[in-house]
Amino acid sequence: MAYFKLNTFNGIAPLIEPRLLRNEVGVTCQNANLQSGNLRPLFNNTEDNTLVGNNITSYYRYKFGGTTFNLEFADDVDPVPGPIADDAFDRLYWTGQTFPRMASSTQITTGGSGAFPRSSFRLGVEAPANAPSAAVPTGTDDGTQIKYSTAYVYTFVTAFGEEGPPSDPSNVVTKVDGQSIVVTMSSTSGSKSDTNYTHKRLYRSNTGSNTTDFQFVTEVTLATTSFTDTKNNEALGEIIPSTFWIAPPDDDSTLYPNGQMKGLTAVGNGIFAGFSGKRLCFSEPFLPHAWPVAYRVTLEDEIVGISMAGNVLFIGTKGTNYIASGTDPQAMAIQKLEAAEPLLYKRSLVDMGGYCMYSGPDGLIAVENGQVTNVTEQLISPVQWRNTFVVQSAGRHEGKYIGQNSSAAQLPTAIIYDPRGGMNSLTTVDSLVGTNDNTRLYNKGFFTDPDTNVLYLLKGGIGGSPPTVKVEIFDDESSDTTRTVTFKTKELVLPSPTSMNFVQVEADSYTGAGVTIKVFGDGTEIFDA
User: Fold this and answer.
1) Is-contact 194 121, C-beta < 8 A?
2) Which of 73, 134, 171, 502 can bridge 58 by disulfide, Cβ–Cβ 3.0-4.6 Å?
């Protein structure tokens, strides 16, 4: 008697003509977990919380004092925890809003009401706009001491001890040890908004000109405008460290016509990276407020997104992609990648841990230590990818890449790609988020908790008045219910015409929603039970 039997179930491979597929490979495989070889449904999502805003697209779980705070942003934001271990301020840094920002636990969790973060500060410290002035030295000059010329500069300092670049130098005055000089500084507290400058640091040159090294004299409050310097040369402190510590590209269009720095990423060794237009930027190690011009590299094409890919930084552009490697921001090696796979969508770029994946023009692209691979090349054709499967935003869940087409013009489609799966690699999901009273819902953003590997989704609506945005846990194993899994085989051709006598399904359970099986013959449904 002719028969066929499916002992295992695989994912889909739309590239291959259905009649040429192995029996176990599906024409349709939706909402399925295939890790065990059996056909198991994904769990339903569970709602974690409700956010305050209605137009939220980015989400971050900030943990402080044993409590998790749900940070929400209307912009495409990239938050990064501070690089200092056991940071007393629990600082968080992010880009994507009007200008790069930072905040401590105090700003994030206290003050006012409504959404978190409650407030923030501009990232970086500006140089004072006005040079100090030095008065004529007072005190005794008996004519026996060596005279030397000196000048002053000063810097702004934040409440977190972050120091900015110096002002222009003062006028040069000549003095001898034992004499005093009254130094006058501007009363302004800087031209930028959202700053938290609290002090000024005064420095003095020690070798007779205003272009030499400046050494520490004193620190005064921000409101202080006059200081009398009585120190002799040998009493001066450290050389000013912040001469080149300028702020990252911000909303000052006269300096940065391509806009503020985006894509904040922790590179390692305490170094942060970001980009503005074609410019790739690196910070001083363990000093995220300092972004020297010497640490910036201009590439040939406009940068779309950056991500760590193993031990290197992947830089995806609208043209040729690059990787950057090194442990010193002054000496980063930039290498052009030969693969013609530009990064289409910034939010499709996901750090998978050891490598990154993103949506390219021909398929899903993986980059690991400079090696570029089209991982869907054997599963999806470039035309199929562009017409049906192209990913616009994505997240990571238990080692899998979860991607969706999140166009508001249509209900989105979503894929799950498991790089460990072989023929089980590719499946689809009917909807990443659950339903409620709003009939048209879609996922607005992804966040993977690095501590638990749980994937959180932002549930919102398409068109009309947006519903309250809710946070859902994707494929939550604690859920009491599962999704409806659908698997459709190819057309199975028997060696000779035959009449079907029975169909048998082996399952763990037939209760609840149960199991439905449909049989088609010559394209017509002939059995449904």
Assistant:
1) yes
2) 73
Write out the two tokens for 471: 């946070």
Best CA proximity match to 412, nearest among 440, 447, 437: 440
The pLDDT score that the predictor gives to residue 52 is 87
- Report the distance separating Cα 185 and Cα 241, nearest Å: 20
> 3-class DSSP state for residue 20?
helix
Residue-wise pLDDT tens digits, 124-133: 999 999 999 9
Residue 44 has which token pair? 């339903």
Of 297, 284, 286, nearest to 242 by C-alpha is 284
Q: How many CB atoms are located within 10 Å of the residue 437 CB?
A: 6
Whether the CB-CB separation of 90 and 104 falls below 8 Å is answered with: yes
pLDDT for 440: 60
Closest CA to 91 of 108, 75, 76, 78: 108
pLDDT tens per residue across span 64-118: 999 999 999 999 999 999 999 999 999 999 999 999 999 999 999 999 889 999 9
Buried b (16+ CB within 10 A) or exposed e, 257-291: eeebbbbbbbbeebbbbbbbbbbbbbbbbebbbbb
**DSSP states of 469-488 as a string?**
PEEEETT-TT-S-B---EEE
Dist CA 21 CA 40 (whole Å): 21
CA distance 457 to 294: 39
Please, what sign has the CA dihedral across residues 298, 300, 302, 307? negative
Q: Which run of H or E residues covers position 108?
A: helix 105-109
pLDDT for res 157: 98
| Cα 1 to Cα 330: distance, rounded to the nearest angstrom | 74
What residues contact residue 465 under an 8 Å CB cut-off, 6+ apart? 54
Please tell me the predicted confidence (pLDDT) of residue 422: 77
**Where does 56-147 show beta strands of DSSP type E?**
58-64, 67-73, 78-81, 92-95, 101-103, 121-122, 133-134
- Give residue-wise pLDDT tens across range 308-322: 999 999 999 999 999
pLDDT score at 502: 82
At residue 132, the pLDDT reads 98
Q: What is the pLDDT of residue 439?
A: 55
Radius of gyration of the chain (CA): 30
- Does the global pTM surpass 0.85? yes
| DSSP state, residue 468 | P
Q: How far is CA 50 from CA 118, 269, 467, 486, in A?
A: 17, 36, 11, 31
Q: Which helix (H) or strand (E) holds 266?
A: strand 262-268
